[in-house]
Amino acid sequence: MEIVGRVLDNWKDIWCSKSAGYVGTGDGSMTDLLGLDGFDSGIGHISPENWSEYVRQTCETIRLAADDEFLEVGCGSGAFMHALVPTPEKQVGIDYSANQIKIAKEFKLEQMMFLEVDAIDIHTLERKFDVVLVNSVIQYCPSTEYFLEFFGKVVAVLRDGGRGCVLDINDIEKKDEFTRRRYIEHGGKKKYLENYKGLKHAFYSRDQILETLKHLGLGSVRIEDQFIRNCGTSEFRFNVFFEK
Ligand SMILES: C[S@@+](CC[C@H](N)C(=O)[O-])C[C@H]1O[C@@H](n2cnc3c(N)ncnc32)[C@H](O)[C@@H]1O
After folding, report:
1. Model confidence pTM above 0.90
2. Residue 41: predicted pLDDT
3. Which end of the chain has a smaller Cβ tally under 10 Å, C or N?
């Protein structure tokens, strides 16, 4: 399911293309869903077992309960939602890729609803949630303005007393080493720059995230190092948890 040797115009096209070429087993297995969500190759590969462990730990940290109304922003094919423990009775996943949402709908469980919505348009859902989760998405924000708006919208759909987390954030302190590893993975800088022409991963500082959430009026904010077993990107990323 990897896209090789193609110059893609922007991240949205990439996410649409990735799922358009869906050639998994067709049964919606976790291996397929992880592939569709971009965790199937190179240093970013995550096995279904390690994914389960990561999601389970996250659920514990956010104190997920079965009666929480749950929203995932940038849900892709739904890999995170399928691994939630306990299983929330009401789950909504939004993503700007029509193809990801199409596949997510194909394999959805009864309590899941998937909608094609850009994070920036999250207010069109016209509802609030107890828990909002964003995993491995903000590296695709095209600008600082977009990222600030994105965070504001995520916080706005949280109920008072609700819990939120934004996970898998590229750490700007580790950008040089991360970039060096990516070049190696892609067969050198030249090849990497060809494949990723016009595409940038956004990096953030922990202070920037803390400051942003403070401006949004959140009192309880906690930043942690990311840990996903045997996943090479994990050491370059961090997670933020907050309460409203
Ligand atoms: C690396 S995948 C992660 C998918 C899912 N969160 C998971 O953990 O399995 C990134 C997803 O974010 C989505 N995405 C990126 N920017 C978005 C935005 N502004 N609004 C909605 N979805 C977005 C992409 O379409 C893609 O499905």
Report:
1. yes
2. 84
3. N
